[in-house]
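Following up on my earlier thread - several people asked me to post the actual chain instead of describing it. Fair enough. Here it is, all 87 residues.
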Amino acid sequence: MIRNQKENPNIFKFSQILIAGNPNTPKYATTKTPLKFYSIWREDIDLEFKNRSVTNLDRLVIALLKKERLLEIIKSFINKNYCIIFI
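Reply from S.P.:
Thanks for posting it. Predicted structure:
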């Protein structure tokens, strides 16, 4: 993802939160964050799926992108001059 941001910056023009996903150790960051600063999600949430086991990527996506948290991130950290919010 870091290489793509350098080689194709226009595809990340409107991205604010990035998730580097693999099932075991997914990480998240903002656009242009160096790889060494990507974070691992540490909140432990209980999830259950009927047809497969839950991965750390599932936990990260569901916890980080839940409506209340996403709105909090937008209000606190994203420059409102460059962001349109659809709820």
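The mean pLDDT is 80. That should answer part of your original question.
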